[in-house]
Amino acid sequence: MANFLTSSIGRKFIQSVSGAFLIIFLGLHVTINFFSVIDTATGSFGAADGLFQLGCNFMSLPIVTIMTPVLALGFVLHIVYGIYLTYVNVKARGGVKRYEVAGKAAADSWSARNMFVLGIVILGLLVFHLTHFWAKMQLRELTGSEAENPYMLLCATFGKWWVLAFYIIWFISVWLHLTHGFWSMFQTIGWNNQIWFKRLKVIGVVVATLICIAFCAVAVNAFIQANFLNPGLAAA
Fold it and tell me: What whole-number distance in Å separates Cα of residue 83 and Cα of residue 120?
């Protein structure tokens, strides 16, 4: 077992499994956050019984409170371990070279050649994100304090244009990372025949696009709410 984990295949396997945590983590959060966009469409934005508020209440359930840090840990492990693998690969080649991947399709992908840079950007903005939302909601609940109103927090955060710009850069980086990482994850565990390889690449683009468009919609919607539709929420 130890030999497997330290082998090239084992290291890729760990990175693939932790990548699955990343996808689940993003999928769960974008679903809850997108409820705020639905609330706008139904005229329930800011309401105590709005879907977004109900989604935040769901995230406060004990089982979810435990599951979320586990998924987040897998997320962080994926990025940190990716940095470590890049270091190992560079050291093994005796210098700074771009990450080499097997197969022409992978080698021609910009995101495949720059996964390390994308990982750094995603990790840095993840810390930025945690200070805006997790620290003011889940962390407060864990410490017995009252969490901030989620609608007000959305508006107060995304109401600033420069914050919105930072997040959009983050979402684009996530999209680039996922479009390569999704099919690469399945390729590592053996789904690498020609038929499934093409399908997984398409599915990966679709999944990454849906996640990132939904995140962008949440951020832009909150910006519009804060500056045009419900400026009182951002000022509260």
Answer: 8
Q: Which residue stretches of the chain are H helix?
A: 2-6, 8-42, 51-59, 62-93, 104-107, 110-113, 115-132, 138-142, 150-158, 161-188, 194-224, 231-235
At the top level of CATH, the class of 7-235 is mainly alpha
State which amino acid sits at residue 139.
L
Q: Is residue 212 a contact partner of residue 171, using CB atoms and an 8 Å limit?
A: yes
Query: Which structure tokens are listed for 127?
Result: 């810390």
| pTM over cut 0.85 | no
Contacts of 135 (CB under 8 A, 6+ apart): none
In a 13 Å sphere around the CA of 112, the CA atoms on its Cβ side amount to 16
CB 147 within 8 Å of CB 138:
yes
In this structure, the dihedral spanned by the alpha carbons of residues 47, 49, 51 and 52, taken in order and rounded to 10 degrees, is 60
First to last CA, the chain: 55
pLDDT at 99 over 50: no
What is the DSSP code string of 87-122? HHHHHHHTS--PPP-SSHHHHT-HHHHTHHHHHHHH
DSSP one-letter code for 135:
G
Q: What is the pLDDT of residues 103-139, one digit of tens each?
A: 444 445 666 666 667 777 777 777 777 787 878 887 7
Domain ranges of the chain: 7-235
